[in-house]
Amino acid sequence: MSKTYEENTKDFYNELNSECDPEKLLYIAKKGIFLDEPLLKYEKIKNHEYVVDISIMGKQFYTINNKKQYNRLKFWYNEIKIKKNKEITRNWDDDAFCEFYKVIIINKYLIDELLKEKNDKFLIELIVAKDYPNFFLFYLYNYAYIYTDVFILFFNDYYSKYEIPNLYFEVFKYFYSNVHKHLLDNFIESNKYPYAKHIVSNLISYYGNDINILNYCLDKVKKYNLIIDRHKSIFKLQFFHSLKYMNFFSNNLFTKNNLYLKCHDNYTSDFINSNLTDRSIEFRTLLEEFKNDTLVKYNINFNEIMDCEIISNNENNNKIIDSEEEDIDRKERIIHYNTKENLIKIIDPQYSGILSYEDKYYENYTNIYKFVFIKNYLRKYKEIDKILKDPNYVLSLKIDISNYNELLIIRLCYIASLIHNRTNKFIIYVLMYYDCKTFEIKLKNNKIIFNGEKYPNSIYNIYNILTRTPHKVFNSYFINHKSRYNDFF
Known about the structure:
By secondary structure, the protein is mainly alpha-helical.
């Protein structure tokens, strides 16, 4: 009879804390374990290539620290994406490839390897999978691969002031880095009233793989006296952790259920009532993939609780608080996201230029040919030649940008100059990502490809401007989607 996840986990950690044989650890992990935290603190194993395999199987965060681990990452990219190999993602949902990327902690070694990477498809898919505004832009700036002016020029300021942003950069820095740890605390402190509970709830949902992050959230719950409710969901925590941690954090991070399911045994009762919500208990609702999780990981057959008695827990009846829709209207919420400004103060304290182009995020179709940048620079061969030969020349002009169209034109001129000067592809892809996604502007074979059909009023006009300058070499970097390069990434 095969061992349970709990038994395998015990064997795994016994081996990890004794001989720490990588082959044995991988063998045990393949049978199914709970990896409650990253393997970063285990010196004997943290740099071994199998950390990649074990972490992916355990849906746990991990870092790439050496070439062997990077090659292992590339190996599993090929196996999962190209060959559809489900050996280490057999218990994942249908979005396994996206999850494969999400658990990678970005560090300088990985960025350095990406800067040397020749597989453009791999680079692009990594950037797309980490689909959070400015995610890699933060790291390029943090590790001094781009100037402050470039960071600001390409920073996507178009955050919703009413939504909590993804905090991967801040979380990764706080828990897995020795610098910039204060950024996460600063964001929570800046928005603690009345949004602390929303922020902590998001941290639990997106980063609950690691019990150290759950402990951090528990500290915030206690510090700010937060009440976090999950009654709109079907479970409180995702099924990542061993039973002791699942029960502990479910019971201490969230409000108690109003309903109690009296099961046939105490083990099942404890698990169901600690980890599932009133919604799941009332309607006996759980998606098939999660039913499989509870059966495989915790030996609980969800179908066997269908006839169990539901008891109303009267003492909790008055404790329902909707953490998603509180008394403040959503449109009146203002989230203050200041990581960009805080990072600039740390990295470039002498910087005194513009900090944001947020006020330029509107379009102006009527006067596009009268923009200062177009009149003074894109109609003069010598000026264009300077732009093409030196990307920093554009930055030195200090133009008072009038709106987003002009900002986009300047960004594209900077990109063309980077291509002309054979700048690293990864940097170009990162800088282009937001505009690529928004306007379907693509990069293929060192050409910037426009899809003017979708945005005829603005993008097509910009295409005409950039392809009809006096400089033929400059013009050649911009083509339309009907060309032979129409197979864009």
